[in-house]
Amino acid sequence: MPGLPLSVCLEGSGQYMRKAITRNAMRRLFAFSGNRCAFPGCTHPLIDEDGDFIAQICHIEAASPDGERYNPSMTDDDRSHPANLMLLCYKHHVKTNNCEIYTVDALKKMKTLHESKFAKEPYFIPPQHLEQIVQQEFHFWAEIKKISDLRKNDGPEAIDMNLVDNALVYIERIQETNIFQSSMIDIVAGKLNSLPRDVVNYLKEIGLDAEKFDEQPYYNNPVYNIEWERMNIGLPNCVIHIHRDCLLAKASFLEMSLRADPDNLEIAASLTAVRKELREMALYANIYD
């Protein structure tokens, strides 16, 4: 599944930071790129007329264990070396995720063939454009990772940013948190609803007259229906809306991915499942009122 170009990945239970590609390595990549995607026949520019980087820096052998063609015997320096990097447009970056077709050897041949075309006429990337790419691809996420690691020394209350390299993972984590939140709401609502009976039982246990408590109309008794509207209408509706927005975000992301890689059966199947859930929600789901 295609991910966002983050410079931070996860490996097992421990986090590590992908080694940043040096400026010299990126200059070399662009020098032999012709400012074009390296996929055969593609003329998509890497840097457009406005100076924006509109392509991606891609690893032949993945930078993280969950990536395509990952080679555990490589060092971080090997993974970030220009020999292991290609410049591709988004569509062809996604397409080359098919490891059965686009093997390490196939991509290396593709890279060599493309770069040989521009060896005699190197492309010069302006310094300001190079800096933009460095900031976009590495520095921001590396900074967030560094801050998160440093804050671990502040104690367990410091939030772990828990960065990954796939945007869908963030959506799925929101959904998991939403399910947990829904269960917590149910527990608290149940406790509040049973509170009047618990008070009566407690009064009896300590020898006080519980009848006077029972004689009070529920609308005059502050123990009855505590935050009933928020607990039984407001918060459950928030859970429903969060779930709806997660499904919409997943569908939009998968549609974008499928447009870039129309033949990807995994993406197509995921999109079909999400669309089915969205359709059922549109047909049958109700909010609390």
Structure commentary:
- This protein has helices at 23-31, 76-79, 90-95, 104-116, 127-151, 167-205, 211-215, 228-260, 265-284; strands at 8-11, 14-17, 56-59, 85-88.
- The chain has 289 residues and is mostly helical.
- It has two domains: 8-154, no CATH class; 167-284, no CATH class.
- The strands form two sheets. The protein has a two-stranded antiparallel ribbon with strand order 1-2. A two-stranded antiparallel sheet has the order 3-4.
Task: Please give a handful of descriptors for the protein shown.
about 290 residues, mainly alpha, 2 domains, two-stranded antiparallel ribbon, 4 strands, elongated, disordered N terminus
What order do the helices and strands follow? EEHEHEHHHHHHH
> By helix and strand content, what is the structural category?
mainly alpha
Shape: elongated
Alpha carbon gap, first and last residue:
39 Å
Major sheet characteristics = 2 strands, antiparallel
Number of domains: 2
User: Helical segment tally?
Assistant: 9
**Total beta strands:** 4
Low-confidence stretches: 1-17
Q: If you compute it from the alpha carbons, what radius of gyration comes out, rounded to the nearest whole angstrom?
A: 27 Å
Give the strand content: 5-15%
> How confident overall, as mean pLDDT?
83
Query: Which strands sit side by side, in order, in the main sheet?
Result: 1-2
